[in-house]
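Students often ask why we bother predicting the structure of a whole assembly rather than each chain alone. The short answer is interfaces. A chain on its own may look different once its partners are present, and contacts between molecules only exist in the joint model. In this exercise we take two input lines together and write out one structure for the complete complex. Read the inputs first and try to guess which parts will touch.
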Amino acid sequence: MTGTLAAIGAGLAVIGAGLGIGRIGSSAMDAIARQPEAASKIQTAMIISAALIEGVALFAVVVALIAQ
Amino acid sequence: MKTRNLISFFFFFLLAGTTIQAFGQEVEEKGDGKEKFKASTYILEHIADSHEWHILTKKNGESVAIYLPVIIFSKETGLNIFSSKRLAHGHEYKGFRLEEEGDLKGKIVLVNEEGHVDEENLPLDLSMTKTVVGMLSAAIIGLLLFLSLARSYKKTGISHPKGIQSFLEPIILFVRDDIAIPNIGKDKYEKFMPYLLTAFFFILINNVMGIVPFPPPFGANVTGNIAVTLVLALFTFFITQFNGNKAYWRHILATPGVPFWLLPIMIPVEIMGMFAKPFALMVRLFANITAGHIIVLSLVCIIFIFKSLAVAPVSVIFVIFMDCLELLVAFLQAYVFTLLSALFVSLAVREHH
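Now the answer. The structure tokens for the assembled complex follow.
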């Protein structure tokens, strides 16, 4: 039972990460479309933000692994 | 890349997929007939640390492995150093046994003459396990690279880079110009450059070595071990604390601009924040690398679950794709760890403006 709950918890965390990184990607693409010459800076910032948000989501996965 | 080379690479990987079929021995022996392949056991065994370096298991069940030395210290018998071959398959040696099931699984325990396991006092296990050997190999590789780099600078002075210099120098300059100077500032960054460079390259080399499966010093899951990332995060923590100036401590213990009746709440919150930041560093690196390894291992397990060679091309292509993604994550996690360490150091040393 705890195994299933842990899996559900991990899945819920992935929803949050997906939404967050999707928003980063979309605003990064809007920004690049507006100003193509700043593309590399925007890309760097996007990758950093994505890594940080993924870190938070993986927190939840680690907690799910421990709880089970 | 020529198409001919591409096709031959593809068939080489396909062939590699067929050889993997020969050593899938993680099956449950259920006495008669049905042996079920347990993917979770297979994956967890490959992620976890172990006293032997398992290479392959032959068709008759014998396993070929490199047996790493066990260095164990118990209060009664003192320091014992022996090969872990003596503890393989649950044998006992000098009163030690490697537990294979139960709560103490994977640990070496003391067993007295009656066979009773002493569960209270575990001996001090300082063995060279798989993770330790992988970490030391990465350290040796790093030392070789950078000592030769320093030697070539000494010989030729500051001239145009050639050889290994031309690969390492842009990365070192990147760490200095894009991570250290923008965050810590032009006047204070030099003191922290050795630590930032060491952290970056240690994490990078260990991540990449974890992705490459053969030969033995590669393929050890070092940065996916939470003890290793804990120590790295502790380094960052101690470096920030020991370099904190008065403004930093004032900000934590008596945040300027906060009315005094809020301080009993603010101080615990700030102290928790002081610990939470390195904790996040630790979990981020551990979880990213372990997740990447688990995904690759699961995709390889597809071949064993379906027990058919026709699945092999699909699985191998997915594995190649995930390995490329893991390589990106390897660089990215090294960069993010170093960037956040520089950021925390900058918070500790910045002047009050």
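Check your guess against this: Confidence is low (pLDDT under 50) at residues 16-34 of chain B.
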